[in-house]
Fold this protein.
Amino acid sequence: MNFTVFFPELILFLTGVFISIFSFSTKKALLLVVVILIFLAVSLFGLPQTDLFSHNYAWDNLSLYFSLLILISTLAACLVAYHTQLSPRISFRRFMPWIFGISALLIFLTGAHNLLYFLAIWSLAQVLFYFFLREFDSGRAWSYLFLDLISTLVIVVGTGFLFAITGNLNLIDIKTTLVVEFFTRGSPGKVLHLGFILITIGLISKLGLFPFYFSLGGLQRSKSLLPYSISSLLLRLGLLAFAIRFWQRCAIIYTDDWQFILSTACTLSVLWGAFGLLLWKERKEWLYLDLVQLGFLAGPISVAAFTPLSEGLFFLGSYILGFWGLILIYAYLNYTGFDLAGALRHLRTDRLLFWALVICVGSVIGLPATLGFWGRYGIFSSLREAKMPFLAYSGLLASLILAIYFGYLFIRSLLTQPVTITRLSHPTLRVLGIICALALLVLGLFPDFVLTLALEAAGSIPF
Amino acid sequence: MVQISQFLAAGILVTIWGILTLALQGPFSRHRIGLLQILVGTGLLTGSISVYFTPGMAQGEFFFGTVVTLLSGIILLLLKNSPGSESADSAGRMGKFSAKVNINSPQDVLRLLNSAVEAGEETDFRGHLILYFFLVVMILLIKLT
């Protein structure tokens, strides 16, 4: 058995412990973190594809793609944490073992093919997240953990059903057993459908799709950008990788059970997010914009076919990069939340960063020549080809609303007097924000690299 | 393949963890986490035992019943013991608004909807929990009937 695939997790875990034990200066710790994360990201390409523990764990191109995104998110979170005030109770060095531990768990989760592995790893990651969130607001942390436990219990019930019927917890074995059982004993009845439905409900509530997005509302009111961005752009990645494996490798033989729920949740997410942005945007801009993005992301997954999945994975790259670009710029402005109108007004005197912000927002809403445009274009065309026009047109309508909304903010910012920025964070964040915007532009003009990764990742699922 | 003994072991471990959490001195929130761990552990134990008697058969109803009962127990316990929070305020505001609103125009409907969404999104976990279960039941009704 080839255990080299666990080196990234091991190195991440050990680095976190190493930094917390030895008394480095925070600057040296950051340097070490950047070097290790870049080294790991490069080394991921050299890991051999492998199946371990009787097909309960697999390292394939899907794991590679998600692990890369996890490492990018970890690096961005570390940089934001280094340059901003986290909380009086948590230092940068205390943050390190926590974020590295959670990343190691999530990278492991990207290859998990077993429901029990998922429940165990995800619970550990959530408890770690609870401890981090508690440093900001113990009440919200408890509320978040509680709701996550409830959705975990819903998944446990569904898992119990599947286990009772098939005697398996491995995703591939469950599917194989169900096919054999169907031909030998006939249809398994409603209990099986209930199992798939409950697991689907649990997964979409953990992902935060409509109507289960309410648990995320409290996070975006934290006094830091990090809790919501880690929940939205890091934790969700590991969860999504497992959800894709569950839906496309296990539940694919009974698509009626989950496809309807997932596609309805995606359609309502994009519409609710877009209209919410217009109607209830006060202090919730981030929540609704994130909801729209998540709806776009999960829509193609609900089709259960190769091309839409690859387009969805391609879109995921633009989603992560665009949002981190925005967060880095907000961190530079010392914002604790998402305030696009304020950022546009404040950045009028800093033209380079102003346009970087416009490119990041443009990518998020699908402006041509950015990476986000190709992501959305691919999703629309694949959804239309897959005969899911309602989902495609809902997405189109939401994009139109987002374009009008951000266009209005942009024009208004040009017509108002520029506001001088009084308190800025470290200039590194400014450079990083500009780099993110340039990356979105360059990858939008030459999308082959991300597209190849997404196609290979989707190719890991045997449709 | 994961065997039944692994479920059993997980149940025992979680239950012991819960007991230890309760046994150690700590704030009230730790007390609730301990109770929750014990109930989840008991759920896993009961599930593993019930599944043991029905391997490979479509008789998961017993497991379902047991876990749902436990789940209800947990929810009731937490609802009863949860500390007061801003949810009461938002619910109060919502109630006051609903009492005095007269729906005479589309704007009133919009204002009512606005308040309902705000109250729903800003309530604490008790409100979210009720909303969660309402939605789960709705989805199950749509899909299974």
